[in-house]
């Protein structure tokens, strides 16, 4: 199935306020480790949506070169450990 997301995709729908609230009190250089619904945390931390979507679609241009998928997106530059 070309052009589809492989594996599980745990959305953050209805939990956006939690991510926004937590990220609003963190300093830029503080690291986070999120849960399986961590897309909101990653976005609130400053993630590039294009790179995030590339990761979800398993593309080599994604944050983890397409290998992290939905639950393991990480970026050390953003202090996000996945």
Beta strand %: under 5%
Cα Rg? 12 Å
Helix count, DSSP H or I runs of 4 or more residues: 3
The helix/strand series, from N terminus to C terminus, equals HHH
Q: What's the story with the biggest beta sheet? A: none
- The 3D shape can be described as globular
Number of domains: 1
**Low-pLDDT windows of residues:** none
Count of DSSP strands: 0
The secondary-structure class comes to mainly alpha
User: How far is it from the N-terminal to the C-terminal residue, by CA?
Assistant: 26 Å
The residue fraction in helices comes out at 25-40%
Mean pLDDT: 90
What does this 3D model show about the protein?
Residues 4-74 form the Dehydrogenase E1 component domain. Keywords: Oxidoreductase, Thiamine pyrophosphate. This is Dehydrogenase E1 component domain-containing protein. This protein has helices spanning 16-25, 39-44, 49-56. It is globular. The model has no long low-confidence stretch (mean pLDDT 90). By secondary structure, the protein is mainly α.
What's the SSE blueprint?
Elements: H1 16-25, H2 39-44, H3 49-56
Cofactor: thiamine diphosphate
GO molecular function: pyruvate dehydrogenase (acetyl-transferring) activity
InterPro entries: DH_E1, PDH_E1_Alpha_Subunit, THDP-binding
């Amino acid at each position: 199935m070309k052009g589809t997301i492989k594996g599980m995709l745990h959305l953050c729908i209805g939990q956006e306020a939690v991510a926004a609230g937590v990220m609003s009190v963190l300093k830029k250089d503080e690291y986070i480790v999120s849960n399986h619904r961590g897309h909101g945390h990653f976005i609130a931390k400053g993630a590039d949506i294009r790179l995030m979507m590339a990761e979800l679609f398993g593309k080599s241009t994604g944050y983890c070169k397409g290998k992290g998928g939905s639950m393991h997106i990480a970026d050390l530059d953003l202090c996000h450990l996945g």
